[in-house]
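RECORD TYPE: protein structure
NAME: Sulfotransferase
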Amino acid sequence: MTEDVDFKKMMRLKLDYINGIPFLQFICKNWEKIWNFQARSDDLLICTYPKAGTTWIQEIVDLIQNDGDIKRCQRAPCHDRVPFIELMTPLSFKSGVEQASEMPSPRVLKSHIPIQLLPPSFWEHNCKVIYVARNAKDNLVSYFHFGRMNQGMPDPGTWPEFFETFLAGEVSWGPWHDHVKGWWEAREHHRILYLFYEDMKENPAREIRKVMQFLEKDLDEKILEKIAHHSSFQTMKENPMANFSTMPSFIFDQSISPFMRKGTVGDWKTHFTVAQNERFNEDYKKKMAGTSLTFRTEL
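PREDICTED:
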């Protein structure tokens, strides 16, 4: 199969719906396989809304589980180390379900699925979940740039167009507000460690400690410092096993926008107009009413 043929098949997939939630069409076509995914009791699931620090937490977890062994963590690109369970493409790549089923235990798996659509086997096996949430404004900006470079996603259009699409929740994996709230409420009933992107930026060592505790790993301070360094944005940006540079450019066109772009808190200020900010805040107030969940949009 040539890159040309693949590229034509890949070009800008459309969205379809599962129980009212938009997903890429190919995920919807294969939904039964995803829904029937068989979790194992020792699986660890990393779940996030797209562009909320997924790759970052994957790298932290891998470093912790391998006691800070850098070489071991560079054994393969992150998308091979951590199967993306709902990944289904029209290309010849293995699906996330296939990749995970071939992997020996204990597995670390990744998903962006909102809580109400998570395959039931994860709850049946009482699996541990690490959820990372990022403030909506920065998350929106990051998702916009990701949509520009990821040729397998719907075309995000202009910034003002994507701003409206995001507010309407008409993006793949659905509305940000429902996603973060759903997982927040579930943490009281399941083994879920709920982390915030902004906390991770502010004090990486403190948040890495929380992950170590959750994974029942007791590593000394020296290893912790090593993990903090090797999972820092700058180090990961230069690490081909973490920065998605191994992904073919006809899928991830990093000449448009790098996969690891800025990794900061507050970049929304360089994108939002005053009018957009007012509109966003008003919409946010309505959608987040009645939740104890709070975010910081600057540090």
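COMMENT: Residues 41 and 124 are 8 Å apart (CA to CA).
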